[in-house]
Give the backbone structure.
Amino acid sequence: MSLPSSDVRLTIGGHIAAAFTALVILWAALALLSTLLSRLNLAPPSAGLYIPDPGNGVEATQTMIRLGSALSDGRTVVLLGSSELMQTRSFMPYRYLPKELGIPVLAIGRGYFQSFAIYEYLSANDRYLSDSTRLVILVSPGWFKEDSIPFNFFLTYFPAPVLARLLDKDAVTDLMRDYVTAHWSLVEKSSATLSLFGPQTNSGAPRQRLWAWIRSGTRRLREQAIGLREQAFTLRTEFDMLLHTEASNSHSTIAAINTETRPVAPDWEALRRVAQERELAVMTNNPMYVRDDYYTRYLKDRGRTEYFPAGMDPKGEMQMLERLLRYLQSRHVHALIVMEPLNPYTYLDASRARTLGNEVAALCASTAMPYYDMTQSDYVPGTLSDAMHVGELGWVLIDEKIDRYYQ
Amino acid sequence: MSTRRFIKLVALYLGLLVVLFTHAGNPDESQSTSKVHFEYQQF
């Protein structure tokens, strides 16, 4: 296109109108492409994939693309939980289900990835949620010990590309802003995106109010710019993932999918037996039914103790969980909620997990979420592999529930 | 301003924006850091 300088010699108003028109065209094109890509589902997750945390930069963008894709494809089970997902057990859903039953699984989370983070992640992928979403949330009694997620873990789960997706969602943005503002004194260095969630200067004298108004305006503009750029970068990354699947993929598959026809219905009873034997075989040096190395490292000199701190108030986490479940209900998602137990051979107050389990049961009942409460039955050794993390037997029990629920 | 000129100008700005978006890299790769580091308790 030849564009001689005489052509460009236009009025300032003409330039502004042209730039604005170009911006609108680009915005519309991005929205259209984004919708098309989400429908084409160009980046389905690999068969069995575990992402402990999103990473940063392109890795974080890829994580969000994978999550959105898995939530919308109607096949993949999205498994969200915390530290139990970090173990290496053969019956873990993201290993066992793809390999043996041909069910793709995307698991995300490690310590402190709980109601708050899960709610924000799902809200960031709001448009991918529907009644065909297959979602499993693993709730641990440990979630209720702390008031909120420690700030360094928050920064791990919310790098700029994740935060950028939350800028235009008023309800979750306010929740995020409250958290970041409350923890702002802990910030050593802030990314441009995080600072958009930081404290805002409020009015005082008229002159200060004017400055506050100007700052609020520029803040809005920065929010728009960051949101738009992340949207554009997401599109580019989706194309990269489509064209160079392996080279551009920062996440590696853990279990390959079984492409053959689904095997005959698993003999769950036999699998439970195998899993328990496997777990008990490495619990030989202690009476607490925990793995030997764990006992030597954490329990040998300690004995049975209390798990929950005195004066613990689970209300904050319970309210956040309720908010999450009500949100899922509003999006017509029927998520399977699993409440994990504590090891009563290790903790004196393990039965308190049952009380928490009852409260979670009430929340699930009021939001019509299917619920599997592992705290209600008598504890069977091997269910956990240590004091609090699910062991081989526990994973088989969870696999069975997932398989039956989503069959 | 003629329509033809206006369209050319829109195309110019559109080109600039596309270049800006496709070559800008990741919007914000800067890492935020915390003054305190809490460790996950295994027990």
